[in-house]
Structures are given as structure tokens and as C-alpha cells.
Specification:
This protein is α/β, with parallel strands linked by helices. Helix content is about 65%, strand content about 10%. A 5-stranded parallel β-sheet has the order 2-3-1-4-5, with helices on both faces. It starts with a helix and ends with a helix.
């Protein structure tokens, strides 16, 4: 609109200017005008048989329009177009692209099942009613293998701290992916806030279950205390005692097919040091409380699992008996309270 207004306002001046230049324009049309194909206008130069009046009119109209363009109006129109693109169109498309990316990220996060829970949901979840067994032992001691069998036989939910951390590392929208990857490669212990958060969410993903095997956790005393303070206390610790040479042989063999970044000789040695310095004291501390069930891994695979099976079976019988006694005690207390109120 601005450009059109400038053209209209400048027309009288431009018409006079065009009139003054008409002689030169006619000369140009006669001597130098060309057809679109680039050949001289022979009719105008007196060499052709003549052109139609329609062509003469078209050429005059085009050159007249070209001569009447106001350069300031043209610059103004171009400025408006460029400014409109820079200030309106480009930011709009950038905003739309960013909005779509955030929406896609949200969908991926929801599909990954790791969106998390609100503080209110966490506070209302009955963690204290869950039977948690920590499964500990050196790397390659057989924690995961035996845990999988216990799931089949006793209906436990198996939560591997290492698997949860690796899954979080691979999740595209994770804010902890690079950090977790660094700790795993170096054989170090991931900050307990991250690990406990993942374990807590995983437990809440199975509200109907009250039996959990937590494999490879806690890795140190700080993690143990933080978990028991913020989630729940473990009923027992299932400890797989295995010589370092046996664990090393198993890990190197597993590394041929596992694809794990920590199944290499460098990372394995670091994991052994971390286990001896940080994780072994956890087992010793729980042993003082009489909570450790030890399984030797020097026997055959079948014998190791039989021993594991028997230990867990005995534990579940004890927990069942304790639950029945607690239920009976609660009934007696309730009855005594009702009798006291009647009096």
C-alpha cells in the first residue's frame, strides 16, 4: 500500500519527465529496440516489412511503465518486504519449528515411560508395604542371571540399577544421559539422587506388586542410607560371593556379545576397585544387622541357584508369617480400643 501511494503521488511529475524524454525514447525505439529473441527490430530500422500496431503498442506501454517507476518507491517497497520477512515471517516459522520440537520431545518422553511422578503421588505411594531385597555382589557374580530365575519362581519385579541407568542414558530427552555415560565408562558410582529417582519411579510403575529385587544397588553406604530415608528399608540383602578371577573371566566373555561400554578390561578393573572400596562396606554393614543372605558362586550354576532359591523361599515364609502376626496384632489393638471406648 505504501509503495502504491508513492507511485500515485508522484505521477504528475513523472509524466512531465516522460514527455521531455519522449524524443530520445522514440529514437531508442527506432534504432535499438529488440524483440525478446535478441534480434534488431528491423521494422523500426526500416529494413523489415513492418510490425502490427499491437506490437508497437506493447513496446511503448512497457517502456513507458519502466520510465515511470519511482526508484524511491521501489526501494521503499523492498524495505517493507525485507522488514516484514525479518520481523514477522521468519520469527513465526522459527517459533512453529521450536513448538513442534518441544511437542515431539514431550511425546517421546511420555512414550519412554519416564515422565516421572508428582511430589503428591510419591508421598501417597505405599513404599513401606513393599518387600525389597537388595541383590549385591561384584560385577559378573551372577546377580542378573539368578534374579531372572527368581522372577519366574516367585513373582518378583526385578529392577536392575545398571539397566535403568543405561536406559536413561539412551533416552533422547534425558538431561542426565551424558553424565551417566561418563560415570559408567569410568567405572564410577552415579550420583545417588539420579539412581534412587529411577528406582523409585520404576517401583511406582508396578503398584500391584509388593516384591522387588533391586539388583546392583546400593553401591555405597550413602546410597543405602538415602534409599532407606526416602523410599523404604530393605528386608534382606542377597549377596553373591564370587572370586575376582571368576568374575573377570565371565565379564570378558560377556563383552564379546553384550555391546556394553563397560565390558572391557579397563572399565572392569575400575569397577573391581569401586566394588572393593565402596560396595563391599555396604554388605559388611548389613551383615552387622543380620540382614545378609550369602550365596557362594564357586559351585555349579544349578547349585548356586538352588541355594539362592532356598534362601529366598525361607525369607518369603518368614515375611508371610510376620505379616500375619502384624495383622493379628492390629486386630487385637483395634478390639482393645473399641472395648476401652465402650467403658
Amino acid at each position: 500500500m505504501f509503495a502504491s501511494a508513492l507511485l500515485r503521488s508522484s505521477q504528475p511529475r513523472l509524466i512531465v519527465r516522460a514527455g521531455r524524454a519522449s524524443a530520445g525514447t522514440k529514437f531508442a525505439l527506432r534504432g535499438y529496440a529488440t524483440f525478446p529473441g535478441g534480434k534488431p527490430n528491423q521494422a523500426r530500422m526500416g529494413q523489415g516489412g513492418g510490425t502490427t500496431a499491437k506490437n508497437d503498442s506493447s513496446e511503448k506501454s512497457f517502456f513507458s511503465w519502466l520510465n515511470n517507476i519511482n526508484p524511491f518507491a521501489l526501494v521503499g517497497a523492498a524495505t517493507i518486504l525485507i522488514s516484514g520477512y525479518t520481523l514477522i515471517i521468519k520469527p513465526y516459522f522459527e517459533w512453529r519449528t521450536d513448538l513442534k520440537k518441544r511437542a515431539d520431545d514431550r511425546v517421546k518422553e511420555e512414550e519412554s515411560g519416564k515422565v516421572g511422578y508428582s511430589d503428591e503421588e510419591i508421598a501417597q505411594f505405599p513404599f513401606d508395604t513393599k518387600n525389597v531385597v537388595f541383590v549385591l555382589g561384584g560385577p559378573g557374580s551372577g546377580k542378573g542371571t539368578n534374579s531372572a530365575k527368581l522372577v519366574e519362581d516367585f513373582g518378583f519385579v526385578h529392577l536392575s540399577a545398571g539397566d535403568l541407568l543405561r536406559a536413561e542414558q539412551q533416552r533422547e530427552v534425558s538431561q542426565y544421559g551424558e553424565l551417566i555415560g561418563h560415570y559408567i565408562r569410568e567405572g564410577l558410582i552415579v550420583p545417588h539422587e539420579i539412581t534412587i529417582g529411577l528406582l523409585r519411579n520404576a517401583m511406582m510403575d508396578h503398584p500391584a506388586s509388593n516384591r522387588f529385587l533391586i539388583d546392583g544397588f546400593p553401591r555405597n553406604l550413602v546410597q543405602a542410607k538415602a534409599f532407606e530415608d526416602t523410599v523404604c528399608k530393605a528386608k534382606k540383602v542377597l549377596y553373591f560371593e564370587c572370586p575376582e578371577a571368576t568374575m573377570l573371566e565371565r565379564l570378558l566373555d560377556r563383552g564379546k556379545t553384550s555391546g556394553r561400554t563397560d565390558d572391557n578390561i579397563g572399565s572392569i578393573k575400575k569397577r573391581f576397585r569401586t566394588y572393593i572400596n565402596d560396595s563391599k562396606p555396604v554388605i559388611d554393614e548389613y551383615a552387622k544387622e543380620g540382614k545378609v543372605m550369602t550365596v557362594s558362586c564357586e559351585a555349579s550354576v544349578e547349585d548356586v541357584y538352588k541355594h539362592t532359591h532356598d534362601q529366598i523361599e525361607a525369607l518369603l515364609r518368614t515375611l508371610k508369617k510376620q505379616a500375619a502376626e502384624e495383622k493379628q496384632s492390629a486386630k487385637e489393638k483395634q478390639a482393645a480400643k473399641e472395648n476401652s471406648d465402650k467403658k
